[in-house]
Amino acid sequence: MLTGTSLPAIKTEVPGPRSVALVDELARSECPAITARRARRAAETGVGQDPIVWKRAKGANVEDVDGNVYVDFTGAFAVAGIGHTHPRVVEAAQRQSQELIHAMGDVYPSEAKIRFTRKLAEVAPAELTHAILGLSGASAIEAALKTAAVHTGRPGVLAFWGGYHGLSYGALSVTAYRDNFRRPFMAQLNPWVTHVPYPDTYRPPFGLAPGTSPEQVSQTTLAHLRALLSGPATGAETIGAILIEPLQGRGGEIEPPPGFLAGLRALCDEFGLLLIFDEIYTGFGRTGTMFACEHEGVIPDILCVGKALGGGFPLSAAIGRQEVMDSWGNSAGESVHTSTFLGNPLGCAMAEAVLDVLVEEDWPARVARRGVEIRGRLQELARRWPERIGLVRGRGLMLGLELITDAETRAPDGALGLALVGICRDQGYLLLPSGQHGHVLALSPPFGVTDEQWEGLFEVLTRAFEECCGAP
Ligand SMILES: Cc1ncc(COP(=O)(O)O)c(C=O)c1O
After folding, report:
1. For every one of its 472 residues, what pLDDT tens digit does the chain have, with 9 covering 90 and above?
2. Ligand 1 neighbourhood includes 164 CB (under 6 angstroms)
3. How many CA atoms lie within 13 A of 309 on its CB side?
4. Domains of the chain, CATH where assigned
5. From atom 8 of ligand 1, which residue's Cα is the shortest distance away?
6. What is the whole-number distance in angstroms between the Cα of residue 166 and the centre of ligand 1?
7. Which of 5, 183, 266, 371 has the smallest CB count inside 10 Å?
8. How far is the CA of 141 from the centre of ligand 1 (A)?
């Protein structure tokens, strides 16, 4: 039985024989666009790093098909905020699945959808009351982009370097994370998107020197945007919306400087643009507040959420101000934005349970406290290897170690990221690299990881650094 609070128990080599056999089988029937991870890892590290195949998960524990038990510090892409197979979510799924698994989203909605959208509006920042539900982060982003086009009459979007918003065509147009995600499809991507640098204070944009103050990085980036939006022929005349992750996730747990989001809000108000926050990663307590935008008290016009929302069920939403969402106009008898599974009752019932647990168990505040403590521990590591850990990034339980080849050049060290992830996995601790070069060792665990599990990770991680970087 998995408890959810156990330390790892590794019985076989990792991956074990059953995992290897199953992944071989998978490669025979799944498109290599997906199983590509396998080849890439092997090529980059020179060691076989086939995936382990998951069998079950609970709380912070995952068990693979070979019976090995791991502690999951990825939260399975930050989905398992309140933990894997949370009992209240499982109970809601069981109850709902006996009554109604599928309804007719926009034509004949279910009670579960109605209850859930009301609760979502209660949890969302005050002015954000009207939602479009979706099934993936990408679909929430596309709903937000369509809403912005309808509301402003302008097709253009300003998005940021390093931003990850999903890979379907509309979302891929605004994603600027890895070149190879976009290159084959360039001709099919929305041409109205302008990408600008994210105000990364560790590697400041616009030629600013490393060490430039956060205020300066913020002001320089905002000044660039202002010039772009106010100049007569900059190409920004078509822009109707600014889309940003208030803390970049896959881009490498990068926080914007204080005041930057407020600066964006002011620009949007001045130029009549909609501000869209992609909180698909950061939402639902991950950064120590229910939504990351609360840290600075900046409310967007549309908030996109997903990942942790469904407790593991694919569910997302774009939640907007009423006057913005009302731009869609009254229905002429048929929904103009819908899909077969929109507002799936099973997902809505599970998500309602997630929202209840988050609020009743006060998870955002608990994450904030835990985050401060863990950040301190990561900073201890950074002090021991200052030549290889440039910075501790992130907030709450969305944290990362910026790995570098040396402190002078600050060159990103993706190979170190992969090596550390591999060593930790073999010892039963699951981590993922993030950042455009895979050079940020990312932590987005279930919130309830125990003290003992954290201690276990720090022990293994310290040994992994010693192995890869030498004793400090
Ligand atoms: C910030 C952010 N936005 C959007 C997405 C896309 O979500 P999905 O993969 O569910 O389409 C992701 C996925 O990692 C994300 O991190």
Report:
1. 899 999 999 999 999 999 988 988 888 888 888 775 565 555 555 544 678 999 999 999 999 999 999 999 999 999 999 999 999 999 999 999 999 999 998 899 999 999 999 999 999 999 999 999 999 999 999 999 999 999 999 999 999 999 999 999 999 999 999 899 999 999 999 999 999 999 999 999 999 999 999 999 999 999 999 999 998 888 888 999 999 999 999 999 999 999 999 999 999 999 999 999 999 999 999 999 999 999 999 999 999 999 999 999 999 999 999 999 999 998 777 888 999 999 999 999 999 999 999 999 999 999 999 999 999 999 999 999 999 999 999 999 999 999 999 999 999 999 999 999 999 999 999 999 999 999 999 999 999 999 999 999 999 999 999 999 998 8
2. yes
3. 33
4. 17-85+363-469 (3.90.1150.10), 87-360 (3.40.640.10)
5. 137
6. 5
7. 183
8. 9
- The verdict on the CB of residue 125 being under 6 Å from ligand 1 is no
Name the DSSP letter for residue 447: T
Distance 69 CA to ligand 1 centre (A): 27
* Dihedral pair phi/psi, residue 395, rounded to 5°: -155, 150
Question: Do 245 and 251 contact (CB within 8 A), yes or no?
Answer: yes
- Structure token digits, residue 64: 């693979």
Q: Is the CB of 136 under 6 A from ligand 1?
A: yes
Q: Is the CB of 149 under 6 A from ligand 1?
A: no
Tell me how far apart the alpha carbons of residues 64 and 86 are, in angstroms, rounded to a whole number.
18
Interval between CA 165 and ligand 1 midpoint (Å): 5
Q: Residue 143 and residue 182: Cα distance in Å, rounded? A: 20
